[in-house]
Amino acid sequence: MNDPVAYAVTAYALVAAAYAGWHLWREAPFSNGLFYVVSVLELLLIALLVGGSIALAGTERDVDGVLFISYLVTTLVIPPAAILWGVAEKSRWGSGVVVVAMLTVAVLVIRVLGIWQGAYV
Predict the structure, then answer these.
(1) What is the pTM of this model?
(2) Domain boundaries, the chain
(3) Residue 84: is it exposed, middle or buried by C-beta count within 10 angstroms (0-12/13-18/19+)?
(4) If one looks up domain 3-117 in CATH, what number appears?
(5) Alpha carbon of 107 to those of 17, 38, 65, 90: distances in Å?
(6) Residue 50 CB neighbours (<10 A)
């Protein structure tokens, strides 16, 4: 797994959280723009899952594969759940849910990187 890629995905998740926070501050409901930002993050997370799976298959490192893949899959599930919840919640708190979800994704991607490096097991 490539460290700069994981950091880039984390940075994008934080940008998505900031954009959702801007919606929350403006008291705006979930918008098409927020949908597109979260959808791009989902595509990045799919690429991270594929790349991480390929890296895991070809590594000699002592990485707990089940834990590593389960974290990658969990990060993949969070953005669609946030979108569904954000669309269903017609108030500004739909955007608030997206803020929390994007921050969670950022933390989980850093955790995945730590598992890959063997720092946090």
Answers:
(1) 0.90
(2) 3-117
(3) exposed
(4) 1.20.120
(5) 12, 16, 19, 27
(6) 11
The encoded tokens of residue 7 equal 């950091």
Contact 75, 41 (CB under 8 A): no
The residues, any chain, with a CB within 8 Å of residue 36's CB and separated by 6 or more, are none
Lookup result for tokens 């946030």:
82
pLDDT category of residue 19 using cuts at 50, 70 and 90: very high
Tens-place pLDDT, residues 3-16: 899 999 999 999 99
For residue 82, give both structure tokens.
């946030």
User: Tokens at residue 91, please?
Assistant: 């108030």
> Rounded CA gap, 114 and 100, in Å?
21
For residue 11, give every residue at least 6 positions away whose Cβ sits within 8 Å of its Cβ, in sequence order, or none: none
pLDDT tens digit string along 33-81?
Answer: 999 999 999 999 999 999 999 999 988 878 888 999 999 999 999 999 9
Question: What is the pLDDT, as a whole number, of residue 120?
Answer: 60
